[in-house]
Specification:
Layout (H helix, E strand, L loop, with lengths): L34 H4 L1 E2 L5 E2 L10 E4 L5 E4 L5 H7 L1 E2 L8 E2 L8 E6 L13 E2 L3 E2 L10 H8 L16 E6 L9 H13 L4 E4 L3 E3 L8 H12 L3 E5 L2 E4 L2 E6 L7 E6 L20 E4 L19 E4 L3 E4 L6 H17 L5 H10 L19 H5 L4
Parallel strand pairs: 7-10, 7-11, 8-10, 9-10, 11-13, 13-16, 16-17
Antiparallel strand pairs: 1-2, 3-4, 5-6, 12-15, 14-15, 18-19
Length: 381
């Protein structure tokens, strides 16, 4: 296993994915060849990338292709990938003793996934379970790409737990909220299929924080966790006709509730969910292009890159708690992959207790802190 590196500007790329026992010219498992990861100039002369949210804290990178800035709030996926790399394999050339995420099934409850996207060429996507076949719903391709886009293939973006399997589950409802009964059924289905991590990309809403009207979701979440699944959901509050509505299963005590953090470390979720801090477990990188992150009155948001169909890539331009939740789900998959003997309590403990806490943070707006993939992998329960 490779030792920790100092944080440096991305300067070299992967030669490609390599399994243990296969020779390769790989020089740094923390720097994949996917162009959006480190950033690149496209054919029109526009700088694209980088995926700052995946990088190690303290990494120097370029947001415009010219100037360098330091990224201090990435989830340290670079270091986490190194956990799965063994320098001694292949005659000292190095190789994966296990692909990050390998052996883990991650269910995504929301919409369908564009399995034909070019950046899923090496990703295992299981058949869609469709509970609303007659209705088109928002796709889950973006979250799926964040979790397990094929990585090291010199195409598109890097996924976090790219060795894992994806199980897409489509549920009906509105564009922002799932039908509660279908959602409960979907959680049960994911558990029955052996999903070790369940990302509820599109949850449902209750009129009260105790969820009296979504008991089916609460019970399904509790039962799935008891059977060993880690359930992750974005924490969000919505107002309809002046009445607050509360997101589930994020508010379930058995789920891991995720908030959104900007490039500068500010809690973005508070704009939409100012009263939910007490329920928050973790934060992960988010951001919207229209955000004024430094308070100078100008739009300077540094958004996240993910997949869009067909065969395109997008910076998420609008408020979305889905990308932060997808990152936490992916880190949970890394932990389960590295520690297959751990149950849900150990994985949850590792994620929460290893989270990064910035010295300038105060209060409850960050939960336990920023999810830290490297620290979670090395956590000792």
């Amino acid at each position: 296993m490779m030792a920790r590196r100092c944080a440096v500007l991305v300067v070299c790329m992967w030669a490609g994915l390599v399994l243990a026992g296969v020779a390769c010219a790989q020089v740094d498992p923390g720097v994949p060849s996917d162009p959006y990861f480190g950033g690149f100039w496209d054919a029109a002369g526009v700088w694209q990338g980088p995926q700052w949210n995946l990088m190690d804290r303290g990494t120097w990178l370029s947001l415009d292709g010219v100037n360098l800035v330091q990224s201090n709030y990435g989830i340290q996926a670079q270091q986490a990938w190194e956990y799965f790399w063994d320098d001694s394999l292949n005659g000292g050339a190095g190789g994966w003793w296990k692909l990050p995420g390998q052996g883990v099934t991650i269910a995504i409850i929301g919409g369908a996934i564009d399995a034909g996207h070019e950046d899923f060429s090496g990703t295992t996507i299981l058949p869609l379970k469709d509970y609303e076949p007659k209705k088109a719903m928002p796709a889950s391709t973006r979250s799926a790409g964040t979790i397990a886009a094929t990585t090291g293939n010199a195409v598109g973006i890097a996924g976090i737990a790219f060795g894992g399997k994806l199980l897409p589950i489509k549920v009906g409802g509105s564009n922002v909220a799932a039908d509660a009964n279908q959602l409960a059924t979907a959680i049960k289905y994911a558990s029955s299929q052996g999903a070790q991590v369940i990302l509820v990309e599109r949850g449902t809403y209750s009129t009260t924080p105790d969820g009296w009207d979504v008991k089916a979701v609460i019970n399904a979440t509790r039962d799935a966790v008891r059977k060993g699944a880690v359930i992750v959901a974005g924490l969000q509050q919505e107002y309809a006709a002046g009445t607050a509505r509360w997101s589930f299963p994020a508010l379930c005590p058995d789920a891991i509730a995720v908030g959104e953090l900007s490039f500068l470390g500010n809690p973005l979720h508070r704009e939409f969910s100012p009263f939910l801090d007490v329920y928050l477990d973790l934060v992960a990188p988010g951001q919207r292009l229209e955000d004024d992150d430094n308070g100078d009155g100008l739009a300077d948001g540094i958004s996240l890159w993910s997949l869009e169909g067909p065969n395109s890539y997008v910076q998420v331009p609008y408020p979305s708690i889905r990308q932060p939740a997808a990152q936490v789900a992916a880190v949970a998959a890394l932990v389960r992959s590295a520690h297959p003997d751990w149950g849900e309590p150990q994985v949850r403990e590792a994620l929460l207790n290893s989270a990064y806490w910035d010295d300038r943070w105060t209060g409850t707006a960050y939960g336990y802190g920023l999810v830290d993939a490297w620290a979670a992998l090395n956590y000792v329960p």
